[in-house]
User: What shape does this take?
Amino acid sequence: MEMPAPNPDILSKKAELVTRLLDILPADAVISDPAETRAYECDALTAYKCPPLAAVLPSTTQEVSDVLRICHEMGVPVVPRGSGTSLAGGALPTEDSVILGVARLNDVIETDYDNRFIRVQTGRTNLSVTGAVEEDGYFYAPDPSSQLACAIAGNIAMNSGGAHCLKYGVTTNNLLGVTMVLMDGTVIELGGAHLDAEGYDLLGLICGSEGQLGVVTEATLRILHKPEGARPVLIGFDSNEVAGACVSDIIKAGVLPVAIEFMDRPCIRATEDFAKAGYPDCEALLIVEVEGSEAEIDEQLETIMSIARTHDPVELRQSGSAEESAKIWLGRKSAFGAMGNINDYMCLDGTIPVSQLPYVLKRIGEMSKEFGLDVANVFHAGDGNMHPLILFDANKPGDLETCEAFGAKILKLCVEVGGCLTGEHGVGIEKRDLMAHQYGEKDLAMQMAVKDVFDPKWLLNPAKVFPLAASDAHRIAAE
Amino acid sequence: MKDLRPETEAELAAIVRDTSEPLRIRGGGTRPIGVPVNGAPLTTAGLSGIDLYEPGALTLVAKAGTPVAEVETALAAEGQRLAFEPMDPRGLLGTEGEPTIGGVFAANVSGPRRIQCGAARDFLLGVRFVDGRGEVIRNGGRVMKNVTGYDLVKLMAGSYGTLGILTEVALKVLPKTQVTGSLACDGLGDETAIAALCRALGSPFEVTGAAHSQAGPEGAARTVIRIEGTEASVAYRAAELQKVLAAYGEFTIDTDPDSTKATWRAIRDVQPFHGTDGDIWRLSVKPTDAPGLVARIDGAEALYDWGGGLIWLCVPKGTAGQDIRTAIAKTGGHATLIRGTRGGGVFQPLAPPVAALQEGLRKRFDPKGLLNPGLMAQAREAAE
Assistant: This one.
């Protein structure tokens, strides 16, 4: 992965930078000792590492503004960081950058049940947002699988999804307002407790902009009352095609499950060995979950099972209790752990039209043989968001490169069949150089023009999202 | 002047590329909101037709000038619908012509169900548009989840053709529900009604519409709550909601398909204000702020939707826009003049740094200032 060479001028100004940062932040909020900055050298994409010049941990919007103003004046790139759980390298530093961590911004500012929103500082973790309202019966819907650790700031930057977004939408559909600091230190407010922000939809624009347009310090999030109950059904099939057809039929029938999860045979076997959830040994497995009162759940599950029966399932297991539900979810929730138990893996995130599922799975199987690396598929089938997990051995020379080439080929396939490179993880550095497969030159130029407006010096989260060759002209013009 | 009416995206791009005259862009011309644009009229109506519809994937791709009615007919044949329930503006605005799907997204038009399933912008998966330099730009795609690059799809939604001319939209659709139940209670004051709506929306019973009209169909105030689903589920949730809402008033249930449809269409299309001669404003606020805000505006009549969060306001003709702006400044939110006397601006004025970003984007997307110049532009509105 190519990163731009660090700017020697900036490296030489480290002492001055640290002094200026210490003027506005408490001593324990400025980290500049190389032994300590190492803690920020990577995110969850651990194949790439680079310690930053320094890291700062501001506690208020004003402090964030001061940090950005100083970095802006000195021309120092800034890499915003939530909890560092990005699988795409979204928080990977450059050698000449300052990491701006929002971990200390973690207060709940306001909870309003009448108007169904919560306002939080964005360093707060996803799960602890729900934690703040759970006792009163409410929850925050987007639930990325890293929700125990990941920060709302990162969720907004990456427009994170989760297993339940088939029904509840992703971050952008649940975000009402933000306080955001621009690179020059200007603090702006977008949206609020009302719906549909005024003017252009800048809220929609910054959500998913990967920390390149500003640093979001506070967010107003939509909260919902918890459903009365939820229960899944597990359906096993002897072919991926049939499972795919069943997904499509369930959707067409008008039931809107809260989640439709799909696992293929390699994934089922791996999770069985690891978690012993009692899954059938079959080609493809669906977990379909619905919500409502007991009677409503029964009615919906009956509809889903009658559709499934028309596809001759090899297994049809309805949960009748919380315990049985947990057992059905156990394997799915352990899937990533199970794969990690076997070997290193790379998790992809392409999205495809649901109708293309069987074809894409078949092609991935063929490519697996071609590249000589095993792959397991576990994903959100209802919305076509695939998560192929490619197994490789990080200690074996060349394996990572083979894995990356395999991954790139899968993602190009996703684009070819009408899908996209990433459904919920983001581009980061991981898929940066594949962007030209998704978008034409002019399409990318238009996106980069947005960056020019928000961050004319191109200092925020450098070298991400856009292929370096494409962004060169913009970055040079900015210098 | 005869409308420019390109039949293809390439033809449209060529028109924009070759012109030095501003363009007044319209779909069906049914939503004349904002200051009048001086420019050659250009309609996207010639770019029409559904290109792709996959009911099993809940996605539809159509050219921007496709009539909304054509899209709705195609969806209905498969038991699906535009879940965000865009209004038909013709009754309120006294316009004729055919609303287009591109127009719906250009104005980000969402009806009562917005409160539960999201706005038009939440259903827009991908766009193609011609920018102010005549370049064809693509963003998003036709899949449900997509975080590949910046989300210009959202930016285009609600930008009223000032950043680009939509040529194609890909959207998410949803299945129709089997049964609609409408709970109604007459005679509630605004404060009580909004409190009841908030209570219903804060329940687990998946309310898909929550509105209060100061002058309901029989003249008296009427508060209505919608639930949708299977027969058994609607019956169950209606009964539960009646219990939850007993403290506010007695809500009766209606499940007749025709009358529930009429009830919610009336709210969607703001029927109480059809044929009135007052000025019409559309306000988006925090729901519990709504009744107090309405009470502060002299002579205002209100139709509250979105649990109180959306206020359709009819004020005496000639009411100073500043009165509305002053009132909403106290609560937060935004106000847009939909019909009537300009002078207080049409769109909500923005804070200077946000206005600067908006202007910056506009210069990048439309450097020659050809696309609906003046529309959504604060300086122009202030000069009126």
The first helix of chain B runs from residue 9 to 18. The domain at 179-268 of chain B is CATH 3.30.70.2190 (Alpha-Beta Plaits). Chain B touches chain A through 82 residues (CB under 8 Å).
